[in-house]
Design a protein that fits this description.
Double-stranded beta-helix, seven-stranded mixed β-sheet, 15 strands, binds N-oxalylglycine, binds manganese (II) ion
Length: 279
């Protein structure tokens, strides 16, 4: 199978066209898609028309899909979640919930966070609703040598309901919240495939850097977050209907924008695939 590749951002993100994932790619094509993802951190596959089972099948070629019961699922496939402009805090105040409205990487409060997230634009608004990404390899590489030496050995505690969180999170049953894991991860991780080092931050879920007092930890986290989210490290994806955007949570952060016109719908199908413990 042949496909065309187009660079999207200056330093990250690429789009491929000429692929119909209703027909699973052969092994060589699949590897070529994975290579584009590893080289560009964010991979957009254009012009897809996929029912949930076909979407799930195609995504399972990139990794093992995981269940995420905090989000609604499609009736056809429990592993295909729904991110929608209709999302409401149904167990809480009933108000609109925007999942991922602040910079984050997915599921860092888990011991083994998902490696990739796949979002499929089933319905996209006429304007707005972009997803922003930031390149955490570049953010790490650009740090002064002294800062890199300081943070290389450090670890941070990540938890779901972090005291530093910025997003309103949807209300979940008390037993589920009590069972929410937390995890300690390195501030700088090595990508298991590319072997490149990247900053591993989750502004929304990091609680504290191990071994630093609260003030010192907050100061360093604020400084690293401000550095990593500078516009020069960002790519902003403007959605087209039928895009599948696959991002690598091990070397990027991302952020949703709920700035589209009131009354317009945005409906995404979402799959995450298993990752390993960060090192
Ligand atoms: C996600 C997420 C961003 C968006 O699905 O993990 O953060 O733009 N989505 O919907
Ligand atoms: Mn997210």
């Amino acid at each position: 199978m042949n496909f065309q590749t187009e660079k999207l951002g200056g330093h990250m993100a690429a789009a491929v066209s000429g692929v119909d994932l209703n027909h699973l790619p052969d092994a060589a094509t699949q590897q070529a898609l994975i290579d584009v993802l590893h080289d560009n951190l964010v991979l957009c596959i254009r012009d897809q028309h996929l029912k949930p089972p076909a979407f799930l099948d195609a995504m399972s070629r990139f990794g093992t899909p995981m269940l995420r019961k905090q989000l609604a699922s499609t009736p056809e496939c429990a592993e295909v979640n729904i991110i929608s402009s209709e999302d409401r805090d149904v167990l809480g105040d009933g108000k609109k919930i925007v999942n991922g409205a602040n910079w984050h990487t997915d599921d860092s409060f888990m011991r083994e966070p998902c490696s990739l997230t796949m979002l499929y634009g089933v319905m996209v608004p006429s304007t707005g609703g972009d997803t922003q990404f930031t390149n955490m390899y570049a953010a790490y590489d650009d740090l002064p040598a002294g800062t890199r030496a300081r943070i290389d050995p450090l670890k941070a505690i990540h938890k779901y309901s972090s005291s530093r969180k910025l997003s309103r999170i949807s209300t979940r049953p008390a037993d589920e919240m009590a069972a929410m894991p937390e995890a300690t991860h390195p501030l700088v991780r090595t990508h298991p495939e590319t072997r490149r080092g990247s900053l591993y931050l989750n502004p929304n879920r990091m609680e504290q850097i191990v071994g630093l007092d609260r003030t010192e930890s907050n100061h360093l986290l604020d400084e690293l977050i401000a550095h990593a989210t500078q516009p020069k490290y960002q790519y902003r994806h403007v959605w087209r209907r039928g895009d599948i955007v696959i991002w690598d949570n091990r070397c990027t952060m991302h952020k949703a924008n709920a700035d589209y016109p009131e009354g317009e719908r945005r409906l995404m199908h979402r799959v995450i695939v298993a990752g390993t413990e960060p090192f």
